[in-house]
Amino acid sequence: MLSGDDREFISALAESVASMGGTRPLTDSALQRMGLHYRLLSKWNARLNLTRIVAPQEAARLHYAESIYGYHLIKATASMLDVGSGAGFPAVPMAIMDDGLNVTALESNQKKSIFLKEVKQQLALANLRVETGRIEDFACSGYAVIASRALDRAEKMYGDLLQRLSPGQILMLFCSDAMVETLSRELPPGIIIDRHAIPDSQSRVIALFNTVPARAG
Predict the structure, then answer these.
(1) How far apart are CA 69 and CA 74, in angstroms?
(2) Which positions of the chain have pLDDT values less than 70?
(3) Terminal C-alpha separation, the chain
(4) Residue 80 φ/ψ, nearest 5 degrees
(5) Which of 32, 46, 67, 201 would bridge with 90, disulfide CB 3.0–4.6 Å?
């Protein structure tokens, strides 16, 4: 039985995705699975402090619809690493959107990692893998896309990630325009920024830091 918050969330999510444009409507299955993720998030949030944004309308737009909008920018890729996944954004919505996309959620906090494993089990997401650890100690060269929405010491961590990118990899950041400007001042050679303003947001963008693939021969 869906609660009032569940119904409000699902309705708000469908509306938010439609208002952003450039994305196809969500299937009933995707809406229901994201609704279940939202229910689990709301239940666990009181003791884990997964996110300060839990109201149905805000969560639908700022967490889920943003993640889905980002998915449509990288949907031709085969694998993605979500660094500092926390409550599962963008990892969980992206895994729901495409069962052919292999998604790894990397989370250093043990309790949040347990939450993500519960989400994987409850939503039956075979294409989602949960790893507990720090990005500094994690091998990330095999992923087509490395994504992040929120990290402590973000400027330093994002700068370090840029230095670690392999040829052909993409770093996908959900961040402020100001953060992109800061990072752009000390870019490693061979990186091009593809910036996408997030619809219905005044200052947030999705920035794709594209590395130039190595030449054959």
Answers:
(1) 10
(2) 1-4, 22-23, 151-153, 213-217
(3) 60
(4) -145, 140
(5) 67
Quick one: tokens of 136?
Answer: 């500094």
Q: Looking at the whole model, is its pTM more than 0.85?
A: yes
What's residue 1's pLDDT?
45
Polymer length of the chain: 217
Q: Is the dihedral of CA 67, 204, 153, 164 positive or negative?
A: positive
Give pairs for 210-217: CB < 8 Å, separation 24+: 210/170, 211/165, 211/166, 211/167, 211/168, 211/169, 211/170, 212/167, 213/167, 213/168, 214/167, 214/168
In this structure, CATH architecture of domain 66-211: 3-Layer(aba) Sandwich (3.40)
Residue spans of the domains in the chain: they are 66-211
- Residue 3's pLDDT is 66
Backbone angles phi, psi at 180, to 5 degrees: -60, -45
- 57/127 Cα distance (integer angstroms): 27
User: According to the model, what pLDDT value does residue 63 have?
Assistant: 95
